[in-house]
Protein 1
Amino acid sequence: MQIRARMSMSADGYVTTPNGWPALTADPAFVSGQSHGIREFLEGCEAALMGRTTFEPALTNNRWPWPDLDVFVLGSKRPDGTPDHVTVDNDAVRLLEKLRSVNRGGDVHLIGGPQTIGTFHALGALDTLELVLLPQLFGGGMHLTPALSPDAGLTFERERVLPGGSVEIVYSCRGSRSELPSKPVGQR
Ligand SMILES: NC(=O)c1ccc[n+]([C@@H]2O[C@H](COP(=O)([O-])OP(=O)(O)OC[C@H]3O[C@@H](n4cnc5c(N)ncnc54)[C@H](OP(=O)(O)O)[C@@H]3O)[C@@H](O)[C@H]2O)c1
């Protein structure tokens, strides 16, 4: 079982639109039906893991977004209307134990958002981080990075161009830690 995060991001580094929607929803190519590789990504997944903020909008969706996946939510309360089969826990370690105890060998899609990715990364539970870089500038929104430590230790695995001009970049989170310069480049 691998825990795999996949985040869409604007070219100026925002994972949400200025009004809080996932970045992908602003891409005309996605809205017109391109999947941006999500179908292939989900082929190996049996579970979806996310924070309560990312989960709650699904409760008012016309269509349940994860019909084929077990769903696990990190949050301090069980939102009203949460289906019985969804596991909610306020403790990330306990939620991971629950997830592992029912795992049948498939991967886990760590959907987000940034706070929850940061939480599982800090626990050493994140295996890969996939970024889908959109050919768009938002000028505002939420960043992935404040919740993800600069010493995340990403190791490049692969990239590919997606329809509509997006680029998928996959990093392993199990590699060596990245070294950031202690001073700005050019200063001695
Ligand atoms: N670009 C993309 O691909 C993408 C993907 C997913 C989401 N998003 C966007 O991300 C935004 C939400 O991100 P977010 O970071 O604000 O929220 P989030 O990670 O979805 O959820 C945050 C909530 O998760 C719980 N949580 C997180 N870490 C915890 C910990 N260590 N211990 C206990 N509970 C913890 C808390 O729930 P409680 O408050 O109940 O305690 C917290 O308020 C949304 O705007 C969404 O559209 C973007």
Protein 2
Amino acid sequence: MSIFKPTVLIDSIFDIDADFIKRHHLKALLLDVDNTLAIYQTREPVPGVMEWIETMRALGVDLHILSNAKPKRLTAFANQVHLPYFYMSLKPLPFKISKAVKKLGVEKQNVALVGDQLFTDILGGNLAGVQTVWVQYMQLEDGWTFQCKRRIETRFRKKYRR
Ligand SMILES: [Mg+2]
């Protein structure tokens, strides 16, 4: 299996429902923020996120934010959605992901890292040995490095969709 291949490819977090949780034997989710739960550069959860979090809670799924963002930026968001968080997680390095899994006290095969970036979220999750769920980013970021990355990602998404 390629370290660049997600366990599952979905459009958005809203594709994660009771059936999905059951099918993938998930007990906990580690959630990216930018372009996964919030539109890039906003600190607002996109409409429906709060309801989705409630649904996951009702199913007994343990939710944590795991972001590369600094604590100041992350705290504001995490407080809004009332979720615990791991900050500056240095994705795609696997160490902090593994540490988070240990802290959750669940087996790594019952954890999924959910994120929009192939070269940080998916690569990091795969290296840490958790399941990886790749969502489509919500909005294209500024800057040529991002545009370049997104173009490569689009190619991968097309390939994996087949
Ligand atoms: Mg992101």
